[in-house]
Amino acid sequence: MITNTSLEYKGDLYPSKIVSYEHEGDSIFFNTDNKVILKVTILRDSLIRFRFTTKGYFSNDFSYAIDKTQLHGYNFLEVTEEETYYQIRTSKVKCKIQKADVRLSIYDLNDFLILEDELGFHWEESYEYGGNIVKMSKYSKDGECYYGLGDKATQMNLKGKRLENFATDQYAYQKDQDPLYKVVPFYIGLHNKQSYGIFFDNTFRTFFDFCQERRNVTSFWAEGGEMNYYFVYGPQMQDVVTTYTDLTGKPELPPLWVLGYHQCKWSYYPESKVKEITSKFRELQIPCDAIYLDIDYMEGFRCFTWNKNYFPDPKRMVAELAEDGFKTVVIIDPGIKIDKDYWVYKEALEKDYFCKRADGPYMKGKVWPGECNFPDYTNPVVREWWAGLFKELVADIGVKGVWNDMNEPAVMEVPNKTFPIDVRHIYDGNPCSHRKAHNIYGTQMARATYHGVKRFAYPKRPFVITRSAYSGAQRYTSSWTGDNVATWEHLWLANIQVQRMSISGMGFTGSDIGGFAEQPTGELYARWIQLGVFHPFCRTHSSGDHGNQEPWAFDEEVINITRKFVSLRYQLLPYLYTMFWQYIEEGIPMLKPLVYFDQDDTQTHYRNDEFIFGNQILVCPILEPNAVGRRMYIPRGEWYNYWTNELFIGGREIWVDTKFDEIPVFVKAGAIIPKYPVQQYVGELEFDELTLDVYFKNGKEQSAVYEDAQDGYDYKKGRYSFLSLRNIGKEKELIIQLHKEGKYITPYTKYKINLIGLPFKVSEIEIDNEKIEFDKVSFEKNNFLIIDKEFNELHIVGE
């Protein structure tokens, strides 16, 4: 019988008063008399880490999420002691830490309160598993909004929601169903025109409550581990997202073909069926760059094998597909079939690479091959072995990309759909149970896959896609939103999910166009294509159980709409490639919700549908059947209707008429949009002209075009071309200034400049201060001119 009441007490525990502090370099340690230590680390003037321990010392500091290649540094740091609090000041913010209870508050330098602890850090001892359940609560300001948290199937603004992070295989999930496949414990708060971010770097099952339980309190907690979070100050949302993306890392540039259109199904087999699909794309002139093989290409669903009845000579087939412009992408799952005659299983068994239960036996679970064991990807030795397995697929057979699925990890025929929590993991030298490793299992699989594909694809760039991910996975892989459903509601969800992933650091994301489960109507598929071509990752995928989902599975009208919009994506490839370059160089998300684009306009705070594609194209999908138009919000500024070139003044909601073969698309006034000719696949055509659509604006606007060899690593040696384009519009004059960086020589020699919205009739053209006759630049009907690309300044003068 326990008589000690302190042992019986299982409620919340709190830090007591601070008794001392030490300042060591970029860190300040605050010690309480009940052994709580708060370590505050200043990574940048606007990036502060708060790390708590309740045991008087810190465990090994290790994170899979943080990009260790990033260098941090601050400009100013001052620590002062006042009567009731300590103050830490940087050149951007002030942090006050109360002596009585370690509660903290953060202000800007004008003493505006950005974020304030309510109960602050507290914890509950976990007697069942050991360690702590760690908790944090903060006050929510009047009108405060919340965004981010990765792949959540709910409204853009998370105010009033409670959400859970535990990577879960959720087949045919519904609106507001949670948790899903990905874990991104990062959110953005916005109030009083000030943005900040919180990244709770804890891989245990975590929860976030955005004022659901109590209207004025937001909180987050985890079932184990440390209270370890990063505060990111804006004050603009752009600054928050960029800083967080720098912290957790960015991908390398993909080959340009990856940004084309992809076709997938569970499953295309045998070889004759694959060839039938690819041939139909070429016959119908619908551009496509990638064809996917799902689990049926394998021998009994054994990874790294081929079913020779379906694919008797995969190397020949992959080469023949490549000749027609198709890159082959294959699926690889984590479950390794228990089969003593299966070489991958035998290797892993001999080397002791599989995950084990607490009492010693290997973790066993059923997935597609039947009973399987599962590699421990948290072991660096296992990751190296796994990477080596891709030699035959990539180097010998010629596969161009690998798709990791079922890596939450998903297990069939068990109530919780995953590993038991007693499974043990190496965790890169920090041994732990599956409670801690579950949320990062998929990321570590994708990491090992990435290193294997990169090694054997060299000197070309790798392509990897994963279903499950934790913060930082974007360094290795792209992703998609999982097993969605062919419904209008899921079209609405796909739009929000990809926007949210973009501002949560994982920009290279898309959805299964048309829905994975069930069968779309032709109208729904067409509307989904019209949205999907404006997502960074663009792939049709379906379960195949409910019918066919190729563009020609519907009617002629849907075929034509698919061709029109996929062709538009291929025209916009230089624009999309530039978006990606800015994402990896500067951490700028490729898709921008309206609140990101203009947080000072409160009308943007609850918008779900509209988004900015890149920096200068506004897209609003049609999300319901039988629509002949829709109401949408045009953000502040001037915008041209892409289809009609009609100019609109923003900052208001308007009705936009649409046809079945259109959705509302607008271009920012002053933008210069680069376009390629339509190709059936990347690299099909050699062309001598880059089209620049120039939208007039009375004022100034900056645009950019990034290009390189479209694959390989020469761009890292300076062999790229980055054009800075400045558009200056006046009452009777248009000036285009061009500045080029980089050593790459683009293969085309001319620009075809489309002049859109000119308010005057052209009377004179000057190139680099030299007057040019109209016939020398093929100037026609006040519409476009063709000029040599080697110029610095173009003047177009009106009457």
TrEMBL record:
<dbReference type="InterPro" id="IPR011013">
    <property type="entry name" value="Gal_mutarotase_sf_dom"/>
</dbReference>
<dbReference type="Pfam" id="PF13802">
    <property type="entry name" value="Gal_mutarotas_2"/>
</dbReference>
<dbReference type="InterPro" id="IPR013780">
    <property type="entry name" value="Glyco_hydro_b"/>
</dbReference>
<feature type="domain" description="DUF5110">
    <location>
        <begin position="689"/>
        <end position="757"/>
    </location>
</feature>
<dbReference type="InterPro" id="IPR033403">
    <property type="entry name" value="DUF5110"/>
</dbReference>
<dbReference type="InterPro" id="IPR048395">
    <property type="entry name" value="Glyco_hydro_31_C"/>
</dbReference>
<protein>
    <submittedName>
        <fullName>Glycoside hydrolase family 31 protein</fullName>
    </submittedName>
</protein>
<dbReference type="Pfam" id="PF17137">
    <property type="entry name" value="DUF5110"/>
</dbReference>
<dbReference type="InterPro" id="IPR000322">
    <property type="entry name" value="Glyco_hydro_31_TIM"/>
</dbReference>
<dbReference type="Pfam" id="PF01055">
    <property type="entry name" value="Glyco_hydro_31_2nd"/>
</dbReference>
<comment type="similarity">
    <text>Belongs to the glycosyl hydrolase 31 family.</text>
</comment>
<dbReference type="InterPro" id="IPR017853">
    <property type="entry name" value="GH"/>
</dbReference>
<dbReference type="Pfam" id="PF21365">
    <property type="entry name" value="Glyco_hydro_31_3rd"/>
</dbReference>
<dbReference type="InterPro" id="IPR025887">
    <property type="entry name" value="Glyco_hydro_31_N_dom"/>
</dbReference>
<keyword id="KW-0326">Glycosidase</keyword>
<feature type="domain" description="Glycosyl hydrolase family 31 C-terminal">
    <location>
        <begin position="587"/>
        <end position="673"/>
    </location>
</feature>
<dbReference type="InterPro" id="IPR030458">
    <property type="entry name" value="Glyco_hydro_31_AS"/>
</dbReference>
<keyword id="KW-0378">Hydrolase</keyword>
<feature type="domain" description="Glycoside hydrolase family 31 N-terminal">
    <location>
        <begin position="38"/>
        <end position="209"/>
    </location>
</feature>
<dbReference type="GO" id="GO:0016787">
    <property type="term" value="F:hydrolase activity"/>
</dbReference>
<feature type="domain" description="Glycoside hydrolase family 31 TIM barrel">
    <location>
        <begin position="251"/>
        <end position="579"/>
    </location>
</feature>
